[in-house]
Inverse folding.
């Protein structure tokens, strides 16, 4: 096993059996996670590759690139691994979370605004799993993901990053 | 406005031009079709009670009546991206197709690069480069907010850009939205002309020539290169294109633009340019009540 080099993009191995970098997740595990936790169909990602740059920072990319690759960015960051609970990013959830069927909490307009400003709020009605949820609200006739929240002890903590928070 | 006097001989209705340059510009936004369709975006704007007007030449370009276009749900979701109306012109002229390899040589803060990705249905490879590391963070922020997954971001001097970092060795298309003296942004930025000098024009035109030459070299035969600036100076526009016509294998081609504009110049200040430069477009603020822009479309030849 070799070590992760945090300065470059490395394509994820297809399966855990093909892993050569210590602690690196596989494409299969990432796609399974999105399906198991959020019900996002695996075929959603058929035309995408997944990469690690930085310890546990996973990126999703639709373009062409060799591995390894030393540039500033490819596609978008989508997931944090190498920690006890994996955590999707707000930008990923906004882009792909519309396909989720599980762990999506629908917020009314006041809750949605509070969530987008980064506020934590007591929400007692959730009876699903605790952990990371997709906060969503209805806009122009459809449910639209706002970002990622952490639900524990009856509280939804907004994980919308500072730079993405807005007073709406 | 003093520096603009030099354009009196080349601009029709120069007084209307000067008047337009003194009027502030309204807010414009582009619909980001990676995140939502035009129809859904318009519906979302209506729900929020935001008034808009769709541009005649491009249904994806909106003029918004709001003081804070960033504090809206449509912006938060990345359905819209604040972008000057004329800034949306070069990617449309570039006309990229899904699956292609496209280079945006001076991409930060990413309005045009993400527009290119959207025009490609976010399928293919858009290499968004900028030489300024500070501006790259803005580019990355916008790309992720707008959900563009086909972008690769690099930080290099475009004049000697190396494709060694990728598996392919040429692009299908390239956009050179060059650093310039920004005279055309005077309505948005009243300080735009504060540091204006003929020396600044001469110095930046050298950089522009270097980047455009590299873009032609890095694009396949038959591929398309679009050159644009937000300035009126012929030294930064026609003269730069003239230079690459002389030094590289390429020709100026026609394009349709449903926005009022004037043809490119074939002479300026005693210099003559190739007759094909008439095919370029000069967009003046008084023609469509926008900012100013120059756009030329080139085809790479053998």
């Amino acid at each position: 096993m070799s070590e992760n080099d945090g300065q470059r993009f490395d394509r994820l191995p297809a399966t855990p059996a093909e892993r050569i970098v210590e602690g690196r997740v596989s494409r299969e595990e990432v796609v399974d996670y999105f399906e198991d936790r959020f019900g996002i169909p695996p075929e959603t990602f058929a035309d995408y590759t997944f990469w690690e740059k930085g310890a546990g920072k996973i990126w999703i990319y639709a373009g062409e690139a060799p591995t390894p690759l030393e540039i500033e960015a490819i596609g978008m960051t989508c997931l944090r691994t190498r920690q006890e609970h994996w955590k999707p990013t707000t930008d990923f959830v906004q882009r792909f979370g519309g396909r989720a069927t599980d762990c999506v909490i629908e917020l009314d307009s006041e809750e949605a605004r509070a969530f987008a400003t980064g506020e934590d709020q007591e929400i007692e009605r959730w009876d699903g799993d605790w952990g990371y949820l997709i906060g969503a609200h209805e806009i122009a006739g459809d449910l639209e993901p706002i970002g990622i929240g952490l639900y524990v002890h009856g509280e939804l903590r907004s994980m919308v990053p500072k730079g993405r928070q807005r007073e709406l | 406005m003093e520096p603009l006097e030099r354009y009196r001989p080349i601009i029709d209705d120069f007084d209307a031009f000067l008047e337009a340059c003194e009027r502030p510009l309204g807010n414009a936004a582009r619909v980001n079709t990676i995140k939502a369709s035009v129809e859904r975006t318009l519906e979302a704007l209506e729900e929020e009670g935001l008034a808009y007007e769709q541009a005649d030449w491009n249904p994806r370009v909106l003029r918004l009546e709001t003081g804070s276009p960033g504090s809206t749900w449509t912006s938060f979701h990345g359905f819209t991206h604040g972008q000057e109306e004329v800034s949306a012109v070069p990617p449309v002229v570039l006309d990229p197709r899904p699956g292609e390899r496209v280079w945006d040589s001076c991409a930060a803060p990413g309005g045009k690069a993400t527009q290119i990705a959207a025009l490609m249905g976010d399928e293919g490879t858009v290499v968004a480069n900028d030489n300024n590391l500070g501006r790259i963070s803005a580019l990355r922020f916008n790309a992720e907010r707008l959900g563009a997954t086909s972008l690769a971001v690099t930080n290099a001097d475009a004049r000697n850009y190396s494709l060694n970092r990728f598996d392919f060795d040429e692009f299908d298309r390239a956009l050179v939205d060059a650093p310039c003296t920004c005279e055309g942004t005077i309505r948005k930025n009243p300080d735009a002309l504060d540091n204006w000098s003929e020396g600044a024009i001469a110095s930046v035109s050298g950089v522009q020539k270097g980047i455009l030459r590299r873009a032609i070299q890095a694009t396949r035969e038959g591929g398309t290169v679009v050159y644009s600036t937000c300035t009126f100076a012929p030294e930064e526009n026609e003269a730069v294109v003239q230079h690459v016509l002389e030094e590289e294998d390429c020709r100026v081609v026609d394009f349709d633009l449903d926005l009022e504009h004037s043809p490119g110049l074939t002479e300026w200040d005693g210099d003559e340019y190739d007759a094909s430069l008439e095919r370029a477009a000069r967009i003046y603020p008084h023609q469509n009540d926008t900012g100013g822009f120059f756009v030329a479309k080139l085809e790479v030849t053998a």
